[in-house]
Amino acid sequence: MTAPLPDGEPVVEPQADGGVQELGRLAQMFSALRYREFRLLWFGAFASTTGTWMQTVAQSWVVYTLTGSAFLLGVDGFLATGPMLFFSLFGGVIADRMERRKIMLVSQILQSTFAFVLAALLWTHTVKIWHIFLLSFLTGSAQSISGPAYISLLPLLVRREDVSNAIAMNSVQFNLARVIGPTIGGIALVAWGAAACFALNGLSFVAVIIAILLINSPVVRGRGEKKGILAEMRQGFSFVASRRALVLLTLLAFAGTFLGMPLTTFLPVVAKEIFAAGPRGYTDLLVAYGIGSVLGALFVAASGNFRRKGHLALLLQLGFAALIVSFALSRNFPLSLVIAFFAGACVVGVVSLYSSLVQLTTSDSMRGRVMSIFMLAFRGGMPLGNLLAGFMAERYSITIALAINGSILFVVALVFLIRGTNLDEELTPQPAS
Fold first, then answer.
1. Where would a tag sit more exposed on the chain, N or C end, judged by fewer CB atoms within 10 A?
2. What residues does each domain of the chain span?
């Protein structure tokens, strides 16, 4: 089946394997995996993300062990995600100008190289804290350039009715990797040391590189005449600014990550200072959070084209905020595991629902720039939140830092709900530009 582009050039619509027309509930939950291109990218990304989480476990423990400083752990988190503040907007313009598959390929090769370098430094016992900080920044820079290309490619690999499912399934692979990665990473960290985790992460990129090479990159609708980079960037901001709901979603995404993501960044501090636990306790908390995230993503995937996505996302964000406060105050480890589980379920539901709302209202030719702005808010809130929470944890305590963050996020979500903000009605599909 083909559909015409604005300039008359046809584009081939993604075809599902087997030509299944009617899907049962279980099949609907995994409907995006019927498409060959999406399936290849999903499994490749899953293998790579699993490796990344293995490194995340090891790196957080190495930084905190080397320095004993919650603030420097926050600095490392800032350097890993901070480049999103500087480079994601350029990444969005590049994603709308170039073949997104090629951008992703270069990024994966660079990230694999950085992981192997850090593994070598640890194996030779020459690693310094500034080495870790530098490689965190370089890895984050590569991710910030390719991130808009990856997230804006996903809707092109499936039909429109399966876009929400594709985004939810992407969350499934990310959070399933969050469960498996820390589990394997924790075992490798205890058995072979942090260097093995970094080396295994470097190897994991082979899977996604092969997947990128095998998929056929779809034609982008309405790409049109290229302008200057700054002009195209301004065009993206104008597109978002002209749609009130997109502005609100961007602000809510920023609030969620700025105030909520320090929960995962500072799990090593919680494990060590509050529960006097070693790497196993830290890994257990991370895995509980990850299992909840997987189930939350599956819930969104099964919900299909649920009409009130915005209202549900606000309710989940309110619940996530309450769970952050509860986690901060908990002094019972099994209870903290349960809280982490439900926090993971809530936050991935929020992210998946907000992202699908943004994707569905954006044309193919603008998607890279629009998603780069959304990602700037979503991921840009992480480094800033990590720095502030790290400062608060160092000056006062991790309990106070997390409790304050959760309380503020609770008020933000509650205000939007009390005002009756209806994100769903304001978001209508946009034609290709």
1. N
2. 31-216+229-426
